[in-house]
Design a protein that fits this description.
The complex is a heterodimer. Chain A is of the alpha+beta class. Chain A has 16 helices and 23 strands. In chain A, strand 8 and strand 9 form a beta hairpin. In chain A, helix 9 runs antiparallel to helix 11. In chain A, 43% of the residues are buried. The radius of gyration of chain B is 24 Å and the shape is flat.
Chain lengths: 541, 313
């Protein structure tokens, strides 16, 4: 080949790359020319979410996103403020005296988005496919206790349990798995755990368009039985990066950023300070706790645990680290949950002198000229484990380290990955760990269940409690109670005893955040931690 | 030349076998138990019974060589298993996301070539000129700015402030501009310098002097002779980077919400979605080999001496 040709070849090479890439660009252009459509729809609310919404299957978990599932599918009952359970797809229900039989009267005239009727048949069909995969759903207490599901008549459904289990009604309000898919959504073999045919629900929203990893558009269900949403459409853009979400929001591409930890604390503060946007913080959704392993020698002594509690300034810690986005907590469970309002615990307020005195009494003395207390030649040294991806845990750990150094305790802090943190908690390979409860609608009964069951970490962690066996027995009794008064008494005494003995220290109440443009109106945080907040929301034109 | 290419393609086989060995062995070397990872991802409570059942299902209780042979058989049928998280075939998930990554990689290579070839060449030919200084400045910038930061800066100025391009997403050519510039800048920095020094070297070669004494036009010498030879190291570098771009646009994909392969892989790591990780490692190995092969073929096209040398072997 001649030299002239070679130059030509280079040109050809460049040209071919050019053509190839324009071709590729062109292709995807044709596919989703609509994806930039913010602004065209005045009545569309655009939000960002860190992850793809996932398959719109009501009966599966990760990677499906709870808020999205809750837009399309509905429960029999719904969880409202203060833990009140309100009618939803069921208008009323009766519980038999022995607490085992639940009879639900279903709402009449409810249609799925494909026009088919919602009735007792379809409720049973959904329950049956869920029960076919019991192992998948066994974390939800009442699922494992279902003995029988029954269609009484077109609008009456009966659920029989093997033993009384009072949280059944509350657990029916969770987002997954007990929500209802229309008949057309079921695959041929009826097993939804492997996938569904199409997302047919009764909810206020209908999935209109979906591109994996890019966006999902929901349009409102014009035939919805309840309050019809005010905005016509919701667009959920998938933006995994927190900074990018904020930039897109500042540019006006997004109407709202909503969720837990979706923006950093600094960003939230900064956006708030501009005054250009509305910012909101929710009611407490869970308590951030420190859990001490009382199996370790130092922490088996209640006086040491109390000394640690007295030995740091909780108010300043929470204010300083979270910039007021979280609130100092006095209770191990937020008080807006059912049965948690009036627990009369011993309040522990910051008191360095008392902390020092308690440690002295426990035999941990400070030798002259040293900074760490000792007992029988052993240093008072404690490890604190935190999730290295969580900046709040890290900052709190660092603050505690310096606070406790002042009372002569050497705190070693160790950041680990979340799966390791969970595993080490389970295996009891920790001194102190960060934890938080699940929140509404799972608590308080799920929290008790976790403390009572072996293998989660708590049960072993409270080993040094003298009344541990008694506590565990009481905890096992709670779900079986049928008398409201007795139940409240049990909760009060159990939660008080767990907290007063100091193995679990409440730190702060965690909250959800929302930032939205000024033309977004009527935003309200849902009482159920996992629900979507979209029904009442509107955009002022 | 055909022979040579065939030989090179055949050499993919041992590399593939090695990569498969590595991915099969990876499961045994890592501290993560696949059965446990599966149950965690699928949200199933772990009991010893279920764990044992899953281990059996994954074939983890079989001898290593059997596992290895099985995985090679499966991979040959493009069966990379089922994702622990989505419950869908890994291959389908990957194939869905690869076009977006290829698009981004090619666009950034294109930008890198279009800018660094003229810039590097001129900087070499006109050493010490303003254009040489400018290219040096650009290279310093390109080489020292971290990509994620550059991405944010570009977004901040060009989309939030000037409203010229979208912040994130995929769709139109405008969506492609900022992410591909972000990816291209470090390449431009590297290639401009590479080409410049290569041009300078070649200018010292006797063939340039010879061409001049033959009375060839300066333009012809530069374009037909110097550039053609000087560009060779740059093409090698390009090939190496093509593999890197096709597998490693992770940060940029995440900053610009680009729905590509890299972002999917990162999520798989967080979820300990082992089949996806295995698939990624294998594909990465094969992509690297293929892009190197592509480069060699281009090299031979431009400089036929290479293929003649190979032919003698």
């Amino acid at each position: 080949m001649s030299k002239g040709n070679s130059i030509l070849n280079i040109k050809l090479f460049i040209l071919s790359i050019l053509i190839l890439s324009t071709l590729l660009v062109g292709c995807s252009n044709a596919n989703n020319g609509e994806s930039t459509s913010k602004g065209k729809h005045d009545d569309m609310l655009t939000i960002a979410w860190p992850r793809d919404v996932g398959e719109m299957n009501p009966h599966v978990y990760n990677p499906s996103q709870l808020f999205a599932q809750s837009m399309v599918y509905e429960p029999l009952v719904s969880y409202q403020d203060g833990g009140k359970i309100k009618p939803n797809l069921a208008t009323s229900w009766e519980i038999s005296e022995d607490g085992k039989v639940y009879t639900f009267h279903l709402r009449k005239g409810v249609k799925f988005s494909d026009g088919t009727d919602f009735n007792a048949e379809i409720v049973k069909k959904n329950f049956d496919t869920i029960l076919n995969n019991k192992e998948l759903h066994s974390w939800l207490g009442f699922i494992t206790k279902i003995a029988q599901t029954e269609v009484v008549d077109k609008n009456t459904f009966k659920l029989t349990l093997t033993e009384p289990y009072y949280p059944t009604i509350q657990e029916l309000a969770v987002v997954r798995p007990v929500r209802f898919l229309g008949k057309a959504g079921f695959p041929k073999d009826g097993d939804t755990s492997k996938g569904i045919v199409k997302p047919v629900g009764t909810g206020p929203w209908i999935l209109e368009k979906y591109k994996a990893d890019e966006y999902a558009i929901y349009k409102r269900n014009e035939n919805y039985w309840g309050e019809i949403p005010k905005v016509e459409k919701i667009k959920v853009k998938v933006i995994p990066d927190a900074e990018t979400r904020v930039l897109a929001f500042e540019k006006g591409d997004l109407d709202m950023i909503y969720g837990e930890g979706v923006v950093s604390l600094d960003t939230f503060k900064q956006l708030k300070s501009t005054g250009k946007y509305e910012t909101r913080v929710s009611e407490p959704i869970a308590t951030r706790q420190l859990v001490m392993n009382t199996k370790t020698e130092q922490l088996s002594d209640e006086r040491v645990r109390q000394a640690l509690h007295y030995g740091f300034n909780k108010e300043e810690l929470v204010k300083g680290v979270t910039s007021g986005l979280e609130e100092e907590a006095d209770h191990i469970l937020p008080t807006n949950l059912p049965y948690t309002k009036d627990i009369h615990v011993k309040l522990v307020k910051y008191n360095v002198e008392k902390a020092k005195a308690l440690l002295d009494k426990a035999g941990w003395k400070l030798p002259k000229g040293k900074t760490v207390r000792e007992k029988d030649g052993k240093l008072l040294e404690i490890d604190l484990m935190y999730d290295s991806a969580e900046s709040i845990q890290k900052s709190m750990a660092e603050t505690l380290q310096s606070e406790w150094a002042a009372i002569g305790v050497k705190l070693n802090i160790e950041g680990v990955e979340l799966p390791d943190q969970v595993q080490r908690f389970k295996d009891n390979k920790f001194d102190i760990n960060f934890y938080s409860n699940f929140g509404a609608p799972y608590d308080p009964h799920t929290f008790l269940n976790i403390v009572a069951s072996e293998g989660y970490g708590f049960n072993e962690a409270i080993s040094a409690y003298p009344n541990k066996d008694e506590l565990i027995k009481q905890m096992a009794k709670v779900p079986q109670t049928t008398d409201e008064k007795e139940r409240q008494q049990l909760y009060s005494s159990i939660l008080k005893s767990i907290q007063d003995q100091g193995a679990i220290i409440p730190i702060s109440y965690m909250k959800k955040t929302a930032i939205y443009q000024k033309n977004v109106k009527d935003f309200k945080f849902p009482a159920n931690r996992d629900e979507n907040p979209f029904t009442g929301i509107s955009i002022k034109q | 030349m055909g022979n040579y290419i065939l030989k090179r393609i055949m050499s993919i086989i041992p590399v593939f076998l090695l990569a498969a060995l590595f991915t099969t062995g990876m499961v045994h070397l890592s501290s993560v138990d696949p059965a446990e990872a599966y149950l965690t991802a699928a949200h199933i409570q772990q009991t010893d019974e279920i764990l044992a059942q899953k281990r059996h299902e994954f074939g983890l209780d079989q001898p290593f060589l059997v596992q290895y042979a099985n995985s090679i058989l499966k991979i040959c049928q493009l069966d990379f298993g089922i994702s622990y998280v989505s419950n869908k075939p890994v291959w389908d998930e990957v194939i869905y996301r690869i076009p977006a990554t290829i698009q981004l990689a090619l666009a950034s290579i294109l930008i890198a070539v279009l800018i660094s070839v003229p810039l590097g060449f001129l900087a070499g030919v006109k050493k010490g000129s303003a254009i040489d200084h400018f290219s040096r400045l650009l290279s310093f910038f390109g080489a020292s700015i971290p990509t994620f930061w550059l991405g944010y800066i570009l977004v901040f100025f060009f989309s939030v402030k000037l409203n010229l391009f979208p912040v994130e997403g995929i769709g139109t050519w405008q969506h492609l501009v900022l992410p591909s510039i972000t990816l291209a800048l470090p390449l431009i920095a590297m290639y401009t310098r590479l080409l410049r020094s290569s041009v300078l070297e070649n200018l010292q070669e006797p063939y340039v002097l010879f061409a001049r004494t033959r009375g060839l036009k300066e333009k012809t010498i530069m374009a037909k002779h110097v550039l053609r030879i000087a560009i060779s190291p740059m093409i090698t570098g390009l090939g190496m980077n093509l593999g890197k771009l096709l597998t490693g646009t992770i940060i940029v994909e995440s900053v610009f919400s680009w729905p590509g392969f890299g972002r999917y892989f990162i999520e798989a790591i967080f979820n300990r979605d082992i089949p996806v990780i295995q698939c990624y490692v294998l594909i990465a190995a094969i992509l690297f080999i293929l892009s190197n092969l592509l480069v060699d073929i281009i090299q031979m096209y431009i400089d036929p001496r290479i293929s003649r040398k190979e032919g003698q072997h």
